[in-house]
Recover the amino acids of this structure.
């Protein structure tokens, strides 16, 4: 029963944080473009805007295309959202503050987040719309290409820490955060950020929703609450990956006063916000690149680079622990 | 009925129903979605057996990878090239015969096998144990798999090359 209550609180906290992440992104983007951003709803600085957006989407008309594959179309947003929320089950926010600290934590994260593609397919196919279909095709190209480097970079901290358990990976960074690990750490972190941006389909890798060509990609036919669910799923996943980056490279909850779970959680959230803003910063600074450039970057640069980096990390760990003479 | 048994029967029901739906559904895309359900339910069975590592790999490779590629193939052929893919097959008789033989073999081998009645205690660190066995006891099959993958890669390159 205690677990159920904890899960309920966690789920609501995550949804609330993600709702406000959209606000943070809009304000941040506005700042970068010398605008003000949302301002009118709620004082000060339009802080009620996300709530107003949510209510607006809730009461909008729900339109189902006549030729859509109805069950698939209707289920898609839910199938898309569930993995995004599930990944938070294994994330430790502070020592002892997390739902389930599985000993295969990171594997669980990667496995569950790979399920997201099924929901994406269902949305694209079920809509029976040519833009949505083209978007799904591009999504497959991109997701297959970037899944591999993403997993390989996520494995580098695993090799350094010698554990798949996320809390153990954080504890291994007590002396030195993995992002500060000489050479290996910085390269792996950069590769991780690039793979994150690609797997989250954000600019410069957002060909699957490219507004100027595909309108809005796979979600073009969705409206009202279903659109809100898809949007929520995307931002939740982005937040989840930010949390993963925090755990793998930025020392998780470690920081001054982090012996107390409250302070640990504060540090954790600040670091996750940092990664989120980093990705947002890239999003609002770059232009979209072509499909072949995206695939070329993945297979010709990122994949060999992460593979070599992972092998180098393995050799270094074996050598420094005295297994190789 | 214990919670574990209830979980097993529930999963078994989902697994059987979705597997049947894979072959009985007329719509190929729906078949693939049912296949994804079946694969995730299999991961659930692994979880019940306390093989978390196997469950996660099952989801990552099958539900995440294989389903993706199958759907890709369907989307490209059916919607973009416009070729209608039929899910049904004329060879009902031979197909039935083959599945009957497989069923008999499976039932017989399970019947004859002397299976332990109680679960052996799982090793302290299952992931470590799998990793160690993979690179010592089972190193030959492991390397053979790598050769197979290489052959697959080369084959794909051969088909994808530009015509001279």
């Amino acid at each position: 029963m205690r677990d159920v209550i904890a899960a309920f609180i966690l789920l609501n906290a995550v949804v609330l944080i993600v709702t406000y992440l959209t606000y943070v992104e809009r304000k941040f983007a506005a700042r970068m473009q010398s605008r003000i951003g949302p301002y009118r709803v709620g004082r000060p600085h339009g802080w009620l805007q996300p709530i107003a957006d949510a209510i607006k989407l809730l009461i909008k008309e729900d339109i189902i295309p006549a030729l859509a594959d109805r069950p698939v179309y209707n289920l898609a947003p839910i199938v898309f959202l569930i993995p995004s929320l599930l990944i938070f089950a294994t994330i430790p926010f502070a020592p002892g503050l997390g739902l389930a600290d599985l000993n295969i934590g990171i594997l669980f994260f990667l496995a569950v987040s790979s399920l997201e593609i099924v929901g994406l397919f269902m949305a694209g196919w079920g809509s029976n719309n040519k833009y949505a279909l083209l978007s799904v095709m591009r999504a497959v190209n991109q997701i297959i290409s970037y899944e591999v480097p993403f997993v390989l970079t996520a494995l580098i901290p695993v090799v350094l820490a010698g554990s798949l358990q996320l809390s153990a990976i954080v504890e291994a960074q007590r002396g030195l955060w993995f992002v500060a690990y000489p050479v290996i750490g910085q390269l792996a972190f950069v590769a991780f950020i690039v793979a994150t941006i690609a797997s989250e389909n954000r600019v410069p890798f957002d060909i699957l929703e490219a507004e100027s060509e595909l309108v809005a990609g796979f979600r073009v036919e969705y409206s009202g609450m279903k659109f809100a669910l898809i949007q929520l799923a995307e931002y939740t996943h982005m937040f989840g990956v930010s949390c993963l980056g925090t755990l793998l490279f930025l020392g998780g909850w470690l920081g001054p006063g982090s012996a107390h779970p409250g302070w640990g959680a504060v540090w954790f959230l600040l670091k996750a916000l940092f990664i989120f803003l980093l990705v947002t910063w890239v999003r609002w600074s770059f232009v979209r690149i072509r499909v072949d450039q995206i695939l070329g970057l993945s297979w010709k640069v990122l994949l060999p680079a992460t593979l070599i980096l992972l092998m180098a990390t393995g050799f270094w760990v074996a050598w420094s622990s005295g297994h190789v003479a | 009925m214990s919670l574990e048994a209830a979980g097993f029967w529930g999963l078994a029901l989902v697994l059987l129903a979705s597997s049947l739906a894979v072959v009985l559904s007329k719509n190929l895309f729906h078949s693939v979605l049912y296949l994804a359900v079946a694969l995730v339910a299999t991961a659930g069975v692994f979880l019940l057996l306390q093989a978390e590592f196997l469950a996660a790999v099952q989801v990552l490779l099958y539900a995440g990878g294989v389903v993706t590629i199958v759907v890709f193939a369907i989307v490209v052929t059916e919607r973009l090239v416009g070729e209608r893919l039929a899910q049904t097959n004329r060879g009902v008789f031979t197909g039935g015969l083959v599945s009957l033989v497989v069923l008999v073999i499976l039932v017989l081998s399970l019947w004859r096998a002397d299976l332990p009645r109680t679960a052996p205690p799982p090793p302290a660190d299952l992931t470590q144990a799998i990793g160690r066995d993979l690179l010592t006891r089972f190193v030959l099959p492991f390397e053979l798999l790598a050769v197979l993958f290489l052959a697959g890669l080369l084959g794909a390159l051969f088909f994808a090359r530009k015509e001279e």
Chain A has twelve helices and no strands. The radius of gyration of chain A is 20 Å. The mean pLDDT of chain A is 84. Residues 161 and 169 of chain A are 5 Å apart (CA to CA).
